């Protein structure tokens, strides 16, 4: 659902590779988790130079005790001197905004007992990884379908 919000954004391409081995279910607040993923997609789209199409790829894959959501861009990467502060409140690499986005994302992920980290290469792009504990494939109330 989150990826479809970006289908009509000019100059951008957000691709989604779903988990195909059933329905991945995690115990999380749907709106909070979608807000976190939206923030990562938006950051990925903004990480591109204006002279090329912004491409962000989102995928869901199984890991031993849950699922791994990956949001990757082909942007400029995060400069080395900024990497250690990327999840801190009030830190931003942009000229606008308050720098609360990635701090909020980390807080959401940690509140659902997940982990978040990133890998980046200057001039190549950045991938954010969210690992969430899974609840199997049953239909439990209060669970979020990825």
Rough outline = globular
The number of helical elements comes to 2
Strand ordering within the main sheet: 1-3-4-6-5
What is the N-to-C succession of helices and strands? Answer: EEHEEHEEE
Decide which structural class fits the backbone: alpha+beta
Q: What distance separates the N and C termini?
A: 9 Å
What is the average of the pLDDT values? 84
Q: Tell me the number of strands.
A: 7
Notes on the protein architecture:
Strands 1-3-4-6-5 form a 5-stranded mixed beta sheet, with helices on one face. Strands 2-7 form a two-stranded antiparallel sheet. The longest helix is centred in the N-terminal third of the chain and has 17 residues, at 30-46. The termini are close together. 19% of the residues lie in helices and 32% in strands. The chain is globular and about 40 Å long. The protein is α+β, with helices and mostly antiparallel strands and 146 residues long. The protein has helices spanning 30-46, 101-111; strands at residues 12-17, 25-27, 54-63, 66-73, 115-121, 125-133, 143-145. The chain contains 2 helices and 7 strands, in the order ββαββαβββ.
Features:
32% strand, 2 helices, alpha+beta
Question: Summed up, what is this model?
Answer:
With 146 residues, the chain is α+β, with helices and mostly antiparallel strands. It has two helices and seven strands; from the N terminus they run E-E-H-E-E-H-E-E-E. The termini are close together.
Strand and helix map with partners:
Elements lengths: L11 E6 L7 E3 L2 H17 L7 E10 L2 E8 L27 H11 L3 E7 L3 E9 L9 E3 L1
Parallel strand pairs: 1-3
Antiparallel strand pairs: 2-7, 3-4, 4-6, 5-6
Helix pairs in contact: 1-2
